[in-house]
Amino acid sequence: MIQVEVRDDGVPVLHDLRVFQVIVNPLEPVWLMPLTFSNASFQFRVSGSFGPDYVVMVSSNLIHWSDLFTNLSPVTPFLFNDAAAASFTNRLYRVRLTP
Questions:
Q1: How far apart are CA 51 and CA 73, in angstroms?
Q2: Block means of pLDDT (10 residues each) for the chain, length 99 residues?
C-alpha cells in the first residue's frame, strides 16, 4: 500500500489523504539457451517475459560484469550473436532486465 498525504497551510487549511494498492505481476524466468559456436562467434537464444528491456552482460570472472548489448525491442525469444567470443578464453553471460 502507498499512502499519499498533502497539506496546505493557507486559509483555510486544506488536507487530503489517498491510499493506493500496487500489484506487481511476477515476470517469467529468463532463459539463455546456447545454440552455436562457429566462425569465431557464439550465438544463444534469450527468452522470458514480453515488456522489459533485456541487457546482455559479459564477464570473464563472475565478479566484474559489463553491458554488452541492450535489446530495446523486448520481444522474446530473440537471438544474440557475440562475434567477439573467440577473442576470450573465458566469456560468461547473464541477462539483466530493465524497466
A1: 8
A2: 92 93 86 87 90 91 95 84 90 90
